[in-house]
Write a structure and sequence with these properties.
The chain is of the alpha+beta class. Helices cover 49% and strands 17% of the residues. The protein has helices at 3-15, 22-31, 46-59, 70-76, 96-101, and strands at residues 17-20, 37-40, 63-65, 85-90.
Length: 103
Amino acid sequence: MSSEIDSELYLALKSGDVILGANRVIKQLKSGSNPKLIVMSNNVPPDMKIQVEYLAKLANVPIFYYPGKSIDLGRAFKKPFFVSIAAIMEEGESRILEVIKAP
């Protein structure tokens, strides 16, 4: 995985506001308080992926498809558990929004 993306995700978690977990992200999208970015691992169950993509499209929230599995995304956030989906509510000091737009 890209170490720059991983470090920016961790910095967003430490200095900003990040929601971890598919159910919490779905609840956040339904509440109307929209994140700036959704990060999704590449092994999210298809039904959950479709639901999050649909809600994100309605809310006009971009999705970044993390190139690793949920264990890798959990490691990027330096958490000892799987993270399939995360929502960046506030990026804090990180440059995650700039980094993912760069080719």
